[in-house]
Amino acid sequence: MKKIIAINLIYFFCGLPTFLYAQNEVDSSKEIDINDQTQYLPDYLENVHIGMTLAEFGIVKNTLLMDVSNNAPDVWYGVREEVTDDGISEVYYKFDKEENGINIDRPLYQIDLIFSDSLSESEFLRDKFGVPQKDLGSSEYEWKFNTNKNYKLFVKQKGIEVQIFAAMPGTEYEAKNDF
Q1: Where are the domains positioned within the chain?
Q2: In the chain, what is the straight-line distance between the N-terminal and C-terminal CA atoms, in Å?
Q3: At 162, phi and psi to the nearest 5?
Q4: Nearest CA to 34 among 50, 47, 19, 20?
Q5: How far apart are the C-alpha atoms of 54 and 37, rounded to whole Å?
Q6: Integer Cα distance of 156 and 90 in angstroms
Q7: Does the reported pTM lie above 0.70?
Q8: What is the residue-level pLDDT of the chain in tens, covering all 179 positions?
Q9: With CB atoms 3.0 to 4.6 Å apart as the test, which of 14, 24, 27, 134 could cross-link to 142 if both were Cys?
């Protein structure tokens, strides 16, 4: 009798994580509505979404209180925000720079979330994206989704950092749109 109980306990504890994780499995073929940030961003980023212009972002967030940076090759414009909400400690926003008339409105094409702990990060990823679609090794994972726009949405987990970016035409990730 003790042997049967022990075997059942082993099956229970080995199967429980798989069962719980499967409950949050997200269909990778589903299309994400980019304008509905609740589908892919934390609650903290209400009114922020991929594709919004730099001008729209300036209305939603006070960029005067954020750190501003430009990358060396002048491909993007970025701002960094310190956060104490949803288990997030920092958020980096990357906007495209106008290049040959493409993306003249300077759209937001990447959001990097730095979590304060791995538990908060894991809960966010599981709830929004489910099981990773690709294991990149070294504790890095990736998800890819179709969107209601003319580009794909990618999510990458690297340690306690989550990168959410669009393979938007005119951006550094444009080539990734053909996967």
Answers
A1: 28-177
A2: 54
A3: -120, 120
A4: 50
A5: 16
A6: 16
A7: yes
A8: 444 444 443 444 444 343 334 444 545 567 999 999 999 999 999 999 999 998 999 999 987 777 777 664 677 888 999 998 889 999 999 998 876 667 778 899 999 999 999 999 999 999 999 999 988 888 899 999 999 999 999 999 999 999 999 999 888 898 876 65
A9: 134
What gap in Å lies between CA 128 and CA 105, rounded to an integer? Answer: 28
Contact between 162 and 94 under an 8 Å Cβ cutoff? The reply is no
Distances (CA, A) of 116 to 48, 120, 133, 161: 21, 7, 24, 9
Length of the chain: 179
- Rounded distance, CA 64 to CA 35, Å? 25
Residue with tokens 């509505």: 33
Q: Where are the beta strands (DSSP E) in 3-158?
A: 31-32, 67-70, 76-85, 88-96, 108-115, 134-137, 140-147, 152-158
CA distances from 30 to 4, 97, 130 (A): 42, 30, 12
Tell me the β-bridge partners of 88.
85, 115
| pLDDT value of residue 28 | 54
- What is the rounded CA–CA span in Å between residue 160 and residue 114? 6
| Long-range contacts formed by 5-8: CB under 8 A, 24+ apart | none
